[in-house]
Specification:
The protein has helices at 44-52, 94-104, 109-122, 138-151, 168-185, 196-202, 220-225, 230-235; strands at residues 4-15, 18-29, 33-37, 59-64, 67-68, 79-82, 156-160, 188-193, 205-210, 213-218, 240-250, 253-258, 263-267, 278-283, 289-291, 300-311, 315-322, 327-333, 348-353, 358-362. The chain is an alpha+beta fold and 363 residues long. The protein is globular. The mean pLDDT is 91.
Length: 363
């Protein structure tokens, strides 16, 4: 079993009458890359600041590596924080920025020199040690901030939207580098982000937050494929939602009557629910198959007409209009060069999916 390094026990934080975090409990494992994911105002940054000691809980307690952090000031906690703005000292060189915290703690000069060199080598910034922050690109400043955060050898590194200041292409490159560095140093990383793709590609586990509480915790594949709530299904990626009710149980599947679809659909993944329970059936757009031929009996299928469509390079996205007026989203990988031979706007098509590729969610 994974070893717990952080235990958050029924923690709440209120600002006046507003509860930013509401009796939240969470365990984070040693050495994992854990992300707090949610929209603005969900409480993720407040929780991160409580871990850092920059805010104190109104209720509950936070334990880090076996020690209760109640009342412990930030500078005595075994954590460090990398801020979204990077907060580099503009009048200092790269080397001086990385060394700053070590000098504050009274490390010997030769040890500081060796540690600074080690950190700059780790983030591939050794050739830029004599430059000042204004002489660096956004990505380079991000690496310097990371080196400075890791130099003091914290047990936990807290990252507040660490890639938000970078452009799209640089963000994609830096994600992979950050994960590689985390694996090399073995430190627990806790990242706050509102970027779903960022959390999905970097994290070993994700906590999806809403209104100061946690909706679901799990590995990226678990949260995406098997969301625990309608909120999570809708927040993470794109999803088709069909309203209905449980009509019957059949072997390992449940049958859901969906009025807007004009038929029952079979679903393999469903919680134990009684007949008549109001539910939604969730199917991801990439799980849908488009065909001009009627699918086999083992598949759920609908018939409609292609409305809007968009070519996205590696993917093509389609909106299929059903007779009921409902619009269904489907995406298909462009495995061959697009030459006009595929589905096009106005075509009548069948939309099919396997029962195992849908999930029943309680309304």
């Amino acid at each position: 079993m994974a070893e717990t390094i952080i235990s958050i026990d029924a923690v709440s934080k209120s600002f006046g009458s507003f509860a930013a975090v509401n009796r939240l409990s969470l365990s984070i494992h040693r050495g994992e890359f854990f992300s707090l994911l949610g929209a603005s105002g969900c409480g993720k940054t407040t929780l991160l600041r409580m871990l850092a000691g920059l805010e104190q809980p109104s209720e509950g307690r936070i334990v880090i590596d076996g020690t209760d952090m109640t009342g412990v000031p930030p500078y005595l906690r075994p954590v460090n924080m990398m801020f979204q703005s990077y907060a580099l000292f503009p009048h200092m060189t790269v080397e001086q920025n990385v060394a700053f915290g070590l000098r504050q703690e009274g490390w010997p000069k030769d040890r500081i020199r060796d540690k600074v060199q080690e950190m700059l080598d780790l983030v591939q910034m050794a050739p830029f040690g004599r430059r000042k922050p204004a002489q660096l690109s956004g990505g380079q400043r991000q690496r310097v901030a990371l080196a400075r955060s890791l130099a003091k050898e914290p047990k936990v590194l807290l990252l507040d939207e660490p890639l938000a200041a970078l452009d799209k292409k640089l963000r994609e490159q830096t994600r992979l580098e950050l994960v590689k560095i985390q694996h090399r140093v073995g430190i627990t990383f806790i990242m706050v982000t509102h970027d779903q793709e960022e959390a999905m590609t970097m994290s070993s586990r994700i906590a999806v937050m809403k209104a100061g509480s946690i909706e679901q915790i799990g590995a990226p594949v678990e949260i995406y494929e098997y969301p625990a709530s309608i909120f999570v299904a809708d927040f993470i990626g794109a999803a088709n939602m069909f309203e209905g009710s449980i009509s019957r149980h059949h072997d390992s599947q449940v049958m859901v009557a969906c009025p807007d679809l004009g038929r029952d659909v079979a679903v393999t993944h469903a919680p134990p629910l009684p007949v008549g329970a109001a539910v939604k059936v969730m199917v991801r757009p990439e799980k849908l198959l488009l065909s001009r031929d009627e699918p086999g009996a083992q598949m759920n299928w609908l018939r409609g007409r292609i409305g809007d469509m968009a070519y996205l390079g590696g993917l093509s996205a389609y909106h299929i209009e059903l007779a009921s007026g409902l619009s269904v989203q489907a995406t298909q990988a462009n495995l061959k060069h697009v030459d006009g031979g595929g589905p096009s706007s106005g075509d009548e098509v069948y939309v099919a999916w396997h029962p195992a590729n849908a999930v029943v969610l309680v309304q």
